[in-house]
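Side project, low priority. Logging it here so it doesn't get lost.
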Amino acid sequence: MKRASLLLIMMVGSSCAVLTKAASYDRSGYFPMPDVTGYTAEEAKAMFLAAGINGSVDVRDNYVCDDPKVAEMRVCSTAPAAGKMTSARLPITLYLRPREIATFVMPDLTGKTGEDVKRILGNLGQDPSRVHIETMVGSNGDDCREGRVCKQSPRTGETTQVNIPKFIFLGPKGAGQHEKPPAVVRSGSEKKPDEKKPEEPKPIF
């Protein structure tokens, strides 16, 4: 019984080895590069193996794809290009259409608190892990108030991607507490301190 089981295992192992060898054979000579445009990276790799191509495959998804028919994360082009002569062991690069990154117009955050900033940018789709809020050192002008946004990057009105870091700078302690008092507006009937009452003209005899 044990001998029969061992023989069966050996036969199955030999069959798997034959299938593996057949699926990953090296095609001889030079031949046109297969066209894998529109396929996923894994599908393209399977097509290469079926065609006897066993070279290394590098996948890049930061490529600007000019073919509008290709979906996100699908092969847009290859190197060598489709139809060009290649061989079984020549390295291949797959260029995929990257995922579209959402954008928004940077709002004016001046005067907002740090919590306000997180809420506003979060509602616009900003990656919260890439919002950096810091407290400035020293004064930054009369418009800067303690704990409130004084400066921001990107600037107001700039279009930015949701994965781009945002830098927010808050006013330091004591900022905005030494503002000039508002000017006093006097009515016309009030007498100014430095004004003198005009002398009445003396009669002429």
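Brief comment: Residues 2-23 form the longest helix (22 residues).
Revisit when time allows.
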